[in-house]
Amino acid sequence: MIDYAQRHVRFGWWSLLVFATAGLVLETLHGFKVRAYLDVSNETRRLMWTLAHAHGTLLAVVHVIFGLTVRGARDLSGRDLRPISSALMGASVLLPGGFFLGGIAFYSGDPGFGILLVPFGAVLLLAAVFLIARATGETVVRR
Ligand code: HEM
Q1: 81 vs 116: CA distance, rounded Å
Q2: What are the boundaries of each domain within the chain?
Q3: Buried b (16+ CB within 10 A) or exposed e, 114-141
Q4: Residue nearest to ligand 1 atom 28, measured at CA
Q5: b/e map of 47-61 (b: 16 or more CB within 10 Å)?
Q6: Whose CA is nearest to atom 27 of ligand 1?
Q7: Global pTM value
Q8: Does ligand 1 lie within 6 Å of residue 53's CB atom?
């Protein structure tokens, strides 16, 4: 049987490492005043990559919280968590991934085609959050 609690706590911390490191990369682009990132004509790229970093880091924290919720709530750990787990994993790939790809090649004010992944990631995230909220409705928390 899959240990969803461990899977998400682990995935969350590793992806936090990845996306916080991406923040360090953005910081470095600022430090070296890289024009491909900072020029006004490239502000779409800056916005997209900042959004990729922000969504990646915050989603990583959501994974850790979900893992701890599964571990701490007896009723939740007995449920079929596969759809929630898959949706959350998918959101973590499609949301920041779409923003990142949208900033690689862009068309003046419009992001690149990678941005088309973002709405799918958003729907997966909202579905996961809904399923989690519903599943915790009658949860008994362990002491
Ligand atoms: C839990 C960890 C983190 C979270 C939740 C987080 C979240 C965010 C958010 C929400 C923004 C957008 C702010 C805005 O545009 O108003 C942002 C921007 C930024 N973050 Fe992070 N961050 C994290 C870690 C880091 C780390 C470790 C670094 C680098 C050492 C970093 C560097 C940056 C930079 C440079 C920007 C601005 C990018 C730009 O506007 O060009 N972040 N972060």
Answers
A1: 27
A2: 4-138
A3: bbebbeebeebbebbbebbeebeeeeee
A4: 23
A5: bbbbbbbebbbebbe
A6: 20
A7: 0.92
A8: yes
CA distance 69 to 141: 9
Side chain identity at 16, as an amino acid letter? Answer: L
Nearest of 91, 92, 95 to residue 127 by alpha carbon: 91
Q: Is 26 in the pocket of ligand 1 (CB under 6 A)?
A: yes
- Strand, helix or coil at 73? strand
Q: Which two tokens stand for residue 24?
A: 């360090």
Q: What angle do the packed helices 82-104 and 4-31 form, to 10 degrees?
A: 10
One DSSP character per residue, 102-115 reads HHHS-BTTB--GGG
Per residue of the chain (143 residues), what is the pLDDT tens digit? Answer: 789 999 999 999 999 999 999 999 999 999 999 999 999 999 999 999 999 999 999 999 999 999 999 998 766 756 789 999 999 999 999 999 999 999 999 888 899 999 999 999 999 999 999 999 988 876 555 55
Length of the chain: 143
Atom index in ligand 1 nearest the CA of residue 38 equals 41
